[in-house]
TrEMBL record:
Domain Mannitol dehydrogenase C-terminal: residue ranges: 287-503
Regions annotated as coiled coil: none
Domain of life: Bacteria
Name of protein: Tagaturonate reductase
GO term, biological process aspect, one: mannitol catabolic process
Organism expressing this protein natively: Fibrisoma montanum
GO molecular function, one term: mannitol-1-phosphate 5-dehydrogenase activity
Length: 518
């Protein structure tokens, strides 16, 4: 799973040296991977796994990283492209504390200012793999010329790079690449392939390139699962740096659990030599639907239903939710009683209902990890799109199975509607408010549908049930928002209206307490 990057918080100390290859010498390897993205998820999962493989002599390759968003790469340059991954948590009842200096990044190049240099990497005969992690919308097709310097979209950049590769190798069969997007999008590999093929057609790149693309470039659907963050603030950063004995601007925190499921065939297995066949952490299979559904529904779906409630309670992190006696009970019952039963299972050991329940219990332990500052406000980014992608199918499956409205999903949906209640617009952005014992806290509503909800809340009087119901009906019935009409689900509108009314008039904690005690 992927949280939004927190701002880098560097605590300087005159007594400590900054991490670099002088104080931490590291071997250099041929550049075998091109990676689009510099975020903490890539640093804490794929790059970390390649580092482990190099240490064990299974890959012997390095990674060239492309930064697409801006031209600032100084934080990498100052550290000779080194950074530290700190693993903290509990796994199978045992405390885990591990520190790894990752040295697999050979270079970090800025697409905005070094695009031609990036294109020359396409001619590297050692290059085998491309990895990406942009945003969910980063895989969308944008009609543009790939001959810009650089193209604006990620698919545009990738098409230009692959075309340069094709030209440099003369369409050679053995010089195709394996492309692995890690964005949390269903069939992310197929979606990226579709965008590249459309761009090839729009840019009239020719039948030979299209053929090479079809037969010799393998786009893999993939799923990543690891909670990765940065230190929450300067104090936390400084404490960790004191333990390490050096400064690290790119310090990365993560949990022990990790999974990377990649949809691929024998060719993919032969290319991804950093994969240990005996390790359950990286799975290469012809079908990864089970792993995707399990994570999307159980882990991500629970986050999306629970995060608004937790934030409205005044909590800051996932660990705070699990330490709150009432909120933790809500999370547990929501996940175990309503979400887990709806996840499709197979009659295969490791993919059956028992495996789903075990995964859910593991997720609850991961949520309780006190070492990670997994901020609820970061999880709330694009909450509406996440609600649709992660929870609409779960809601439908619950109705098919139980023929009734799920009480905890309904309460989570009501809290989501309240969280989306903007109180004012500030420079084209909308903010919400929560009341606390010490006053009022405002928060940004970072959602493409912020104005949509702001407009609908204008006609709502909190004490008037009719206006509350009108809001619920109008949102639930929006096919464009959800892909279906949620208002036709029996009793769902009534349940959500009742809970939203209670949240507005009785308060968040009393409403939640009443629900979990039922």
């Amino acid at each position: 799973m992927t949280p939004a990057d927190q701002p880098s918080q560097t605590a300087s100390s005159p007594t400590m040296a900054q991490l670099n290859r002088t104080i931490h010498p590291a071997p250099e390897y041929p550049e075998k991977i091109l990676q689009f993205g510099t975020g903490v998820l890539l640093r804490g999962l794929p790059d970390y796994l390649v580092q482990k493989a190099n240490a064990e002599g299974r890959f012997n390759g390095s990674i060239v990283v492309v930064k697409s968003t801006d031209s600032q790469t100084d934080e990498f340059a100052r550290q000779d492209n080194l950074y530290t991954v700190v693993v903290r948590g509990i796994q199978q009842g045992q405390d885990v504390a591990e520190t790894t200096v990752v040295s697999v990044v050979s270079r970090v190049l800025a697409a905005q200012t070094q695009w031609q240099q990036i294109l020359t990497i396409a001619r590297n005969p050692n290059l085998q793999i491309i990895i990406s992690n942009t945003t969910e919308v980063g895989l969308d097709y944008v009609e543009e010329s790939i001959f810009q310097n650089p193209p604006q979209s990620f698919p545009g950049k990738l098409t230009a790079f692959l075309y340069e590769r094709f030209r440099s190798v003369g369409g050679a069969k053995g010089k195709g690449l394996v492309v692995i997007p890690t964005e949390l999008v269903t069939d992310n590999g197929l979606k990226l392939r579709g965008a590249v093929e459309k761009l090839a057609q729009f840019n009239e790149l020719g039948k030979l390139f299209t053929k090479w693309l079809k037969f010799h470039v393998r786009f893999c659907n993939s799923l990543v699962d690891r909670i990765v963050t940065r230190p929450a603030d300067a104090e936390a950063q400084q404490k960790l740096q004191q333990e390490l004995g050096y400064e690290d601007e790119l310090l990365t925190l993560t949990e022990p659990y990790h999974l990377w499921a990649i949809e691929g065939d024998d060719r993919v297995k032969q290319t991804l030599t950093f994969v240990d066949p005996a390790s359950p952490a990286i799975i290469i299979d012809e079908d990864i639907l089970f792993y995707r559904e399990r994570k999307l529904r159980v882990l991500n779906g629970t986050h999306t239903f629970a995060t608004p409630m937790g934030y409205l309670l005044g909590l800051e992190t996932v660990a705070d939710e699990m330490q709150h006696p009432i909120m933790s009970r809500f999370v547990e019952r929501l996940m175990l009683e309503e979400i887990v039963p709806t996840v499709p299972a197979y009659e295969t050991p490791g993919m059956d209902k028992a495996a789903i329940r075990q995964f859910a219990n593991d997720v609850l332990d991961r949520f309780r990890n006190p070492h990670l500052d997994h901020l609820l406000l970061n999880i709330s980014l694009q909450q509406s799109a996440k609600m649709q992608a992660r929870n609409v199918a779960t809601l439908q499956r619950y109705y098919e199975q139980f023929k009734a409205a799920p009480p905890f999903m309904a309460l989570g949906f009501a809290a989501y509607l309240l969280f989306m209640k903007g109180v004012r617009e500030e420079g084209g952005r909308y903010v919400g408010e929560i009341a606390t014992g010490g006053g009022v806290i405002t928060y940004p509503i970072r959602d493409e549908k912020a104005k949509y909800f702001y407009d609908r809340w204008q006609s709502v009087t909190p004490t008037d049930t009719a206006t509350v119901r009108q809001l619920v009906v109008s949102v639930c019935a929006d096919n464009e928002l959800w892909g279906i009409d949620l208002s036709v689900l029996p009793d769902f509108v009534d349940r959500v209206t009742e809970q939203l009314g209670s949240l507005l008039t009785e308060g968040v904690e009393p409403t939640l307490a009443k629900a979990v005690q039922s």
